[in-house]
């Protein structure tokens, strides 16, 4: 039973990640519609300074994302993700940066015990 449930959850997650796909969750009180993010129209387009973010910038933005998220609540001009990027290369850097932060926090929490 556990394997079937895990396989079904995996299938829903994979199907939900396909471009243009939508998953609808309905309860008695509300309906939530979940969809995969759409394409970035600013990919490979330089910003006002003529720069396009690559993997190094993605790594840095992933590392500082927790702090940037908190600051973005107070400053509407600040965002955690650079839309003027090269695509998958930037995404990989951002993901690795976020993973690095989570790993370091996990190590620090284990050391405290």
Describe the structure.
It is built from three helices and two strands. It has 113 residues and is mainly alpha-helical. It has a two-stranded antiparallel sheet with strand order 1-2. Helix 2 crosses helix 3. The longest helix has 25 residues. It is extended. The relative contact order is 0.13. The mean pLDDT is 85.
Kindly report how far apart the N and C termini lie: 35 Å
Strand content: 5-15%
Q: What is the count of β-strands?
A: 2
Q: Low-confidence segments, ≥5 residues, pLDDT <50?
A: none
Proportion of residues in helical segments: 40-55%
Largest sheet entry: 2 strands, antiparallel
Task: Give the oligomer, counting copies of the same chain as homo and different chains as hetero.
Answer: single chain
What are the key terms here?
mainly alpha
Q: How does the SSE layout of this entry go?
A:
Blueprint: H1 2-16, E1 22-26, E2 31-35, H2 55-72, H3 88-112
Antiparallel strand pairs: 1-2
Helix pairs in contact: 2-3
Give the structure's gist in a few sentences.
The chain is mainly alpha-helical and about 110 residues long. About 50% of the residues lie in helices and about 10% in strands. The protein has helices spanning about 1-15, 55-70, 90-110; strands at about 20-25, 30-35.
